[in-house]
Amino acid sequence: MKMRTYVVEDNPTIRENLISTLEELAPVETVGASDTEQQGAEWLINNDGRWDLAIVDLFLKKGSGLGVLEACRARRPLQKIVVFSNYATPEMRKRCAELGVDAVFDKSTEIDCLLAYCVSQSEKLDTVANDESSLQRA
Questions:
Q1: Whether the Cβ atoms of residue 68 and residue 75 lie closer than 8 Å to each other
Q2: pLDDT digit string (tens) for the chain, length 138 residues
């Protein structure tokens, strides 16, 4: 099962490279992208049932990724939000955890960890979908 993924990243080159890498190497389908806090938060809130994973940068064209994280605190349990940033300091990781982020990855050193996370989360979604399918047939 491909995870429906939304990307909030203001750098077009990084956004395009991230999307193509994830779609090639992980079970990910990109359902949208934005480059500002307002666009990202609004899309994620207004499309609640249409995404499984949000990947958010902290520094955006307008606003901050922290605002996106705050806006999505009341998401469904299977919906995951991760931060992918060059500013993954211990203090920022702590702040992200306080906002309910599921994981923080450093852009310069942890792309492989992000890919592994995507694979793992996709497998969990597959398990849940299979369990629900089995219950409906019973």
A1: no
A2: 799 999 999 999 999 999 999 999 999 999 999 999 999 999 999 998 899 999 999 999 999 999 999 999 999 989 999 999 999 999 999 999 999 999 999 999 999 999 999 999 999 988 887 766 565 665
pTM of structure: 0.93
> With 0-12 CB in 10 A as exposed, 13-18 as middle and 19+ as buried, what is 79?
middle
Rounded Cα distance between 32 and 41, Å, is 12
Place of tokens 């480059």: 35
Query: Residue 135: phi, psi to the nearest 5?
Result: -65, -35
What's the CA gap between 19 and 92, in Å, rounded? 24
Element (H, E) at 20: helix 12-25
User: In this structure, what are the phi and psi dihedrals at residue 116, rounded to the nearest 5 degrees?
Assistant: -60, -40
